[in-house]
């Protein structure tokens, strides 16, 4: 089995293992719903409608299936999830809005679009907020992380847990990005985000917003010279076929968030709330391990395809974006940024 086949089979194998494990919890009720992901719903069970925009082999979906199974186990079959993957219920922003208006119970979204509903969450889109992965998870698992999860309650948005979405890194067609100077005049695809564009400008690059679906052809045609994203996305998008240089500079770490409608949360009994929180935390731990494995597989497969990797010194990159970070002093985002950067993960 080659690396490409191995990488994409991981999700399938994990899904089959999860399905097998869940059999012990399923005694009656339907096995399949319109979404294709409802397990063990009984006539009297409380079924929560959940959605995300990723495919069924992605770590986020496998983690949601795991959450579904743990919820069935904790509740003895009286609570479950009905999962709609692949953007069936709309893109991330629409799913957040559906939580607010009661059309959806649970969603998994990036912290980036949450910024439009909870301004403080803009902190996650800033560069070099976290020192490394250990600092990242130490903060998210601390009182700071728990406070962030509650910041949207007044907007009808309650956070249950965080998922790993890795670090975003530069990858290019020609030269490795070893120093900010290497970005001089280089056209880098970014999300349509003021923060992302300003970051690239400060580092010396030329930010070019392009939709994700159009990026492969843009790289091929030379519309852009490179892009930035995490390892699994770099590989699954097949950008490794065009970009053979990958710099592990880790400029941002933007978590995914499991969100529940505050109205739905308040409709649950205290016992149901406890079950739901426990299932969400179990799934978070599961997803972190799965993400790490997927990242390793993606790197190995990309190397086999001829991609060169390099880990640069972070200090010059951090120095280049200091004006952006300092511009938030005296704001709610700046206060949260200071708390995060001062947090001791030891």
From TrEMBL:
CC annotations in GO: outer membrane-bounded periplasmic space
Annotated TM spans: none
GO biological process, one term: transmembrane transport
Pfam families: DctP
Alphabetized UniProt keyword annotations: Signal
CDD domains (UniProt xref): PBP2_TRAP_SBP_like_3
GO molecular function: carbohydrate binding
Protein name: TRAP dicarboxylate transporter, DctP subunit
């Amino acid at each position: 089995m080659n690396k490409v086949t191995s990488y994409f089979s991981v999700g399938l194998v994990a899904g089959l293992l999860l399905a097998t494990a869940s059999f012990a919890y399923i005694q009656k009720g339907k096995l399949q719903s319109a979404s294709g992901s409802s397990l063990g719903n009984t006539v009297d069970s409380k079924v929560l409608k959940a959605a995300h925009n990723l495919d069924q082999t992605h770590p986020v979906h496998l983690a949601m299936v795991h959450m579904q199974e743990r919820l069935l186990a904790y509740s003895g079959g009286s609570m479950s999830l009905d999962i709609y993957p692949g953007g069936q219920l709309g893109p991330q922003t629409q799913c957040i809005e559906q939580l607010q208006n009661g059309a959806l119970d649970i969603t998994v979204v990036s912290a980036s679009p949450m910024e439009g509903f909870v301004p403080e969450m803009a902190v996650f889109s800033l560069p070099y907020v976290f020192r490394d992965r250990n600092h990242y998870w130490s903060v998210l698992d601390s009182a700071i992380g728990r406070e962030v999860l509650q910041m949207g309650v007044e907007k009808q948005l309650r956070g249950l847990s965080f998922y790993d979405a890795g670090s975003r890194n530069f990858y290019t067609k020609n030269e490795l990005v070893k120093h900010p100077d290497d970005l001089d005049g280089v056209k880098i695809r970014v999300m349509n985000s003021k923060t992302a564009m300003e970051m690239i400008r400060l580092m010396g690059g030329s930010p070019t917003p392009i939709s994700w679906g159009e990026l492969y052809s843009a790289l091929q045609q030379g519309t852009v010279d490179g892009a930035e994203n995490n390892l699994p996305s770099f590989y699954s998008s097949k950008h490794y076929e065009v970009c053979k240089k990958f710099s592990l500079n880790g400029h941002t770490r933007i978590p995914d968030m499991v969100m529940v409608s505050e109205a739905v949360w308040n409709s649950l009994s205290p016992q149901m709330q406890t079950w739901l929180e426990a299932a969400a935390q179990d799934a978070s731990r599961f997803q972190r391990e799965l993400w790490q494995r997927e990242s390793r597989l993606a790197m190995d497969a990309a190397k086999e395809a001829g991609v060169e990797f390099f880990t640069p010194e972070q200090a010059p990159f951090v120095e280049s974006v200091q004006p952006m970070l300092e511009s938030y002093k005296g704001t709610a985002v700046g206060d949260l940024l200071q708390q995060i950067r001062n947090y001791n993960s030891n």
